[in-house]
UniProtKB/TrEMBL annotation:
Keyword terms of this UniProt record: Purine biosynthesis, Transferase
Family from the record: Belongs to the GART family.
Listed HAMAP family: PurN
Protein name as it appears in the record: Phosphoribosylglycinamide formyltransferase
Binding sites annotated in the UniProt record for N(1)-(5-phospho-beta-D-ribosyl)glycinamide: G13, S14, N15
Native source species: Rhodopseudomonas palustris (strain ATCC BAA-98 / CGA009)
Gene3D superfamilies noted in UniProt: Formyl transferase, N-terminal domain
Length: 217
């Protein structure tokens, strides 16, 4: 049996769509069982419905600062649907340490920077202000700290001198859509293992794929 995955979203859901598309392919080792949004107007809900994926809205706003109350409702939904893995796809709500610990090793997040650089809000603005020449995206296990946790996979893109946060975000997003399904595939196929606080993968990138920007001759 393939592990059943819940994707949690708050907005547009383009990473969600990439995961749904990848999981629809023959041989993908996980099944997207439900998309849950904490925002009723999230654009991703319609995309999921068009793909035939069950959708659920659990609005977090009425819970205010009562994170545990929101999470109890979320956990009940996850239990009812037999969910084994969670993918956060632009889910803009922090979890309690208890919830993060309960799902440790089974909950993934994607963040649009090369963590541990530029966690939190406005990662692309942070990258541009720091003047980095390479940025990218990171898929990692969720821990109680925001945008932290063992790194599973990263993808890099060049930063150009005339980039704005929007142009950089678009370049990084294309990489996000490639690495998130791959990271889920590795996890669901049992190809990841923990080494202390680090995540190791049974697959290795070829050394010739090293990315140096600007190009070094
Ligand atoms: C993505 O860029 C994702 O990496 C980011 O929100 C965007 C959601 O877009 N997540 C974070 O910043 C988490 N700290 P999407 O709804 O189109 O997938």
């Amino acid at each position: 049996m393939k592990p059943r995955v819940a994707i949690l979203i708050s907005g547009r859901g383009s990473n969600m769509a990439a995961l749904i598309e990848a999981a629809a392919e023959d041989g993908f080792p996980a099944e997207i069982a439900v998309v849950i949004s904490n925002v009723a107007t999230a654009g991703g809900l319609a995309i999921a419905e068009r793909s035939g994926i069950a959708t659920v809205v659990i609005e977090s706003k009425p819970f205010g600062k009562d994170r545990a109350g929101f999470e109890a409702k979320l956990q009940a939904e996850l239990d009812a649907r037999g969910i084994e893995l969670i993918c956060l796809g632009g889910f803009m709500r922090l979890f309690t340490a208890e919830f993060a610990q309960h799902w440790y090793g089974r909950m993934l997040n994607i963040h649009p920077s090369l963590l541990p650089s530029f966690p939190g809000l406005d990662p692309h603005g942070q990258a541009l202000r720091a003047g980095v020449k390479i940025s990218g995206a990171t898929v990692h296990f969720v821990t109680p700290d925001t945008d932290a946790g063992p790194i599973i996979m990263q993808g890099a893109v060049p930063v150009q001198d005339d980039d704005t946060p929007d142009t950089l975000a678009a370049r990084v997003l294309a990489v996000e859509h490639r690495i998130y399904p791959e990271a889920l595939r590795l996890l669901a196929a049992g190809l990841l293992r923990f080494d202390g606080d680090l995540c190791r993968s049974a697959t290795q990138s070829a050394p010739e794929r090293t990315l140096i920007v600007p190009a070094a001759h």
